[in-house]
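Researcher: Structure for this, please.
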Amino acid sequence: MTDRRFLLFIVRFYFALAVPFLLASAGARLLLSEQFLQLAYQRPSFPSDIYGFTLEDRLLYGPIAIGYLFDGDPIESLAALRLPGDRCWNIEAGAADCALFSNRELRHMADVKQITKTIFALAAVLLAIGAALVLASRYSARLQSDIRLGLRRGCLLTMFSLLCLAVLSAASWDRAFEIFHELFFAEGTWRFPFSDSLIRLYPEQLFVEAAFALAAFTFVLAGLILMLLAISERRFRPRV
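Model: Predicted structure, token format:
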């Protein structure tokens, strides 16, 4: 009996921790898309590129690096991309074109791809484990109850964490932005001049909007799951 209670505790603990990660991963996947870039780029208040990229240029080149994160192509696929001379900054004298991304930018994109693959691979594993537990719960009312409890705690933890992050970001967005990058990237590998293509295509305003959209999506989804849990519990609650 003790072993069974411990296993059920593990199930609750698993869902409580997996839910925030899975909800954030789902939101991140939606944002890492051509559709989100199109919406962001075409907003009237989105900052223009003082170095020469037009809206059409951003719509052309912006999705390329995002697509690289999810395809199987090596970094050489980005290294081979060229910009026409009138879109280059600090172009060499007499050159007809220039590389879209510098060596430092390519290194950073390779790092981002590796982190992205790791995060979504982990999300797939967690989702598969969760699905297996849900299927197993068909034969155990107690397991169903513990899964619902774990889901509820995971959603509440998600919402509480988002509120804390919102306070931190509102107090100092720059510091929050730095902490995020310091967690995932080596020092000196993620800062670039404003004239580099990564900054021209993905300015800080894009990250601000993406962070807000991710937080809103994750918060609403967690709230929706809580609502569905409450409805299901009322529906299956034994009537006296």
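Researcher: Any notable elements?
Model: Residues 27 and 183 are 19 Å apart (CA to CA). The first helix runs from residue 2 to 31.
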